[in-house]
Design brief:
Distance between the termini: 36 Å
Helix content: 10-25%
Number of helices: 10
Radius of gyration: 24 Å
Number of strands: 25
Length: about 525
């Protein structure tokens, strides 16, 4: 796929709510213990009582280190620290009056450096390699047989432009995209067998399924190739019958080599991370109108023009909703905070919306089972990973800036533990002048970057974020729910199944290239 052909991405926007998908487990591919029963459609990820949330981990978000490696808000605000600094400076100046003017000029520079050092932050590796394994266990504690289909996405290669191999086309091009996540091997282990699954898209149809001693079968058809496939992506299908009192276990292990990448052109962007030469800022950004026409308008038509998307049967509302009063008010306030010459600047609005949420939302480690919508997250003043992403994407949809989901898992480097995770992607256009000066075809002239609000990662990919699936366009609005509903009960027949999902590092991690610190740095325009 070339960069002038945007990957098919998205979900249905607006209109009548889509039909409820077939029965599925109320859980995500990366969630913890769950009782597998029929559930409503919509974004939901299971958690058992007292268990860590399957759909939201926060690493280094807002300050104050904890033993678990998470970063939380500090109680002492920046303004209070600044006041203490200046009280000391004034006292010092009165004691040593001959050089007051030079002193205050020097102190101003020193204060900026001190304030920067006092800001909360999180350290990330430039490069990382590891093996990560997800183990899924089903236990039938009912009285009858249960037929189950477990779907496991085959991870794709993640590049600096989604899954595209090309970054730009133009004079001297095409310019290759950089490989950010290389899955060098993907294998399954169940019933004493190790099964290697190709990651190059080679399918294995149900007619050629691998049979296991228990009678279970495993195969991995091409994406959206029929009833026996996954619509959202190529996936492994593990189909089996589990009698009363028995368990079935499968582990899916990926060998991953990854690196950090930034799409942010700014002094506060980590200097040791690649991507600066192709990065964007307010000065190089195009307008809202530019975001509608880049990539032949495909991103806008799939991810920007519709005000609502991702219907939740449980909440009876859309999770991304640009029509709600509090979303519209937030967008109005954000626009008003920008200088007049930045009112139609796509980058400036997207960044200001991000800073707005960083300042107003808390991380909710006890988020509800069924994810809040963007408007509900704003109303609550808190949310976990995908809820805060819902809020950010809702605000951006007011200006029709294309945004969509990315899902996977996040490694907490302090505790070497994993949790399921969801974050946002965004398409931001360069302006015509930048495109011309850099010899890039106007149609290709945009970035496709990652934004993780709860972890303070602005246009930044870290190798500790394992990317399993980037949302693809689906007019029926079913792919996101299908991804979440990784386990389907075909026939309960009197049985009752408990499902447990665990994620662990099985090799590594090995870090390289040094480290860098991400801090909270609101951007001034």
């Amino acid at each position: 796929m070339t960069s002038s052909q945007s990957p098919s991405r998205g979900a249905k926007r607006g209109g009548a709510p889509p039909p409820t998908p077939r029965l599925h487990a109320a859980t995500s591919p990366f969630s913890r213990s769950t009782s597998v029963v029929p559930a409503t459609s919509g974004v939901t990820r299971g958690r058992s009582a007292g268990a860590a949330a399957g759909r939201g981990v926060r690493q280094g978000a807002r300050g104050g280190s904890s033993k678990s490696g998470e970063i939380r808000r500090t109680g002492l605000r920046k303004g209070k620290i600044r006041n203490l600094i200046f009280v000391g400076a004034i006292a010092f100046a009165f004691l040593f009056t001959p050089a007051q003017e030079q002193l205050f000029e020097a102190w101003s520079n020193l204060e900026d450096e001190i304030m920067n050092q006092l800001k909360p932050g999180r350290e990330y590796p430039v490069e990382a390699s590891y093996s990560v394994s997800r183990t899924v266990t089903y236990e039938n504690d009912g009285t009858g047989n249960v037929e189950v289909v477990q779907r496991i996405p085959v991870p794709e290669l993640r590049t600096s432009k989604g899954i595209s191999a090309s970054q730009f086309h133009g004079d001297g091009g095409p310019f290759d995209a950089s490989l950010l996540q290389d899955v060098t091997a993907f294998r399954l282990e169940t019933e004493g067998q190790v099964i290697t699954v190709p990651t190059d898209g080679t399918p294995r149809a149900i007619e050629d399924a691998i049979s296991l001693p228990s009678g279970a079968i495993i195969y991995w058809p091409a994406a959206n190739s029929g009833d026996d496939s996954c619509g959202y992506s190529q996936c492994v299908r593990w189909e089996f019958t589990i009698p009363p009192g028995e368990t079935r276990v499968i582990s899916a292990e990926a060998d991953v080599v990854g690196k950090s990448w930034t799409w942010w052109d700014h002094d506060n962007s980590p200097s040791d991370v690649d991507g600066q030469s192709w990065a964007i800022n307010a000065e190089s950004s195009g307008t809202f109108a530019d975001s509608k026409v880049r990539a032949f308008g495909q991103y806008w038509s799939q991810f920007g023009q519709h005000e609502t998307t991702i219907w939740s049967d449980y909440h009876q509302k859309y999770l991304i909703d640009a029509t709600h009063e509090n979303v519209l008010q937030a967008a109005t306030d954000i626009s008003a905070s920008l200088p007049e010459d930045k009112h139609d600047n796509a980058y400036a609005f997207a960044r200001a919306a991000y800073d707005y949420l960083i300042d107003t939302l808390e991380y909710d480690k006890n988020a509800p089972l069924y994810a809040r919508s963007g408007p509900d997250c704003l109303a609550a003043g808190k949310g976990d990973c995908d809820e805060q992403s819902n809020a950010w994407m809702s605000i951006l949809r007011v200006k029709e800036i294309p945004t969509w989901y990315e899902f996977g898992a996040l490694l907490d480097t302090a505790s070497n533990s994993w949790e399921g995770h969801g974050w946002a992607n965004v398409m931001l256009p360069f302006n015509d002048a930048w495109c011309s000066a850099n010899g890039v075809n106007l149609n290709d002239c945009y970035i496709e970057g990652s934004v993780d609000v709860v972890n303070n990662k602005w246009l930044l990919h870290t190798p500790t974020a394992y990317s399993e699936w980037i949302e693809v366009f689906d007019p029926a609005d079913e792919f996101v729910s299908e991804y979440y509903a990784s386990g389907s009960i075909v026939n309960l027949a009197g049985g009752h199944v408990n499902r447990d999902v665990t994620i662990e590092t099985t090799s590594g991690p090995v870090y390289g290239g040094g480290t860098y610190v991400v801090k909270i740095n609101p951007e001034e325009f």
